[in-house]
Amino acid sequence: MLASASALEFEKLVEEDLGSVSTSVGDLIAADSRDMAIKSWDFGPSSITEEAIAEMLKESCFPSSRVKIHPPGQTIPEPEEGYAVVFRDFFTCGLRLPYIPFLRRVLETFNVQLHHLTPTAFLTLSKFCWACVSYGAEPDVDTFCTYYELQKQPKKKKEVRDGKEVEVTYQYGSCTFMSKRNQGVDRLEISFCQKGKWDRG
User: Which helix (H) or strand (E) holds 84?
Assistant: First the structure.
């Protein structure tokens, strides 16, 4: 499913700044290029239906004029300008469009886009926003970064390419926010609540 994110200009990922990394160039290069992970942007066919869209509209997940189902048979989404790839479970976990500026700042700070995140990441963001608002504060990125870190949980699968079975790493749905540990006794630690498995599609 593609949903509008007009409040956010999606930018291409910038190269990671390696200036502070202390290592030799040799340590950064794989000994054999065949050992390098093969990336896949194949999302598979969408399972979203008009009925599912109607249900989400009842829940005010997004404005009716700002949602599109990508064309049948398209397994690698190509969203138009002003649109982003999102998963239905994101809305179950608290995402609403248009979203609050805090989400945009989090995406920019961690250099990720919506489709890189897992549904659990949205549970964490929703819980953090709820905690801030409950105490009369606006959600703040610096505070969020004090308590959470982004972890990548790679999704790998076998695919047939050029007649050979190879292992690929998917480039979506693999990043989530985890509570930082060892924060010290003088700080509040927000315990995390996560769902490890989500239905396919």
Answer: strand 83-85
| 199 or 2: which leads in pLDDT | 199
Rounded Cα–Cα distance for residues 155 and 129 (Å): 28
- The identity of residue 140, as a single letter, is D
Both tokens of 93, joined, read 């976990």
User: What tokens does 96 get?
Assistant: 């609403």
Are 168 and 187 in contact, with CB atoms under 8 Å apart? Answer: no
Rg (CA), the chain: 19
Label residues 15-28 b or e (16+ Cβ within 10 Å = b). Answer: eeeeeeeeeeeeee
SS3 (DSSP) at 72: coil
H or E element that contains 23? none
Q: Which of 26-35, 90-99, 163-172 has the lowest mean pLDDT?
A: 26-35
Tell me phi and psi for residue 88, to 5 degrees: -55, -40
Give the three-state DSSP class for 169: strand
Q: What is the pLDDT of residue 76?
A: 85
Taking the CA atoms of 52, 57, 60 and 63 in sequence, report the sign of the dihedral they define: positive
Is the pLDDT at 144 greater than 80, yes or no?
A: yes
Mean local confidence (pLDDT), 4-11: 36
Does pLDDT of 121 surpass 50?
A: yes
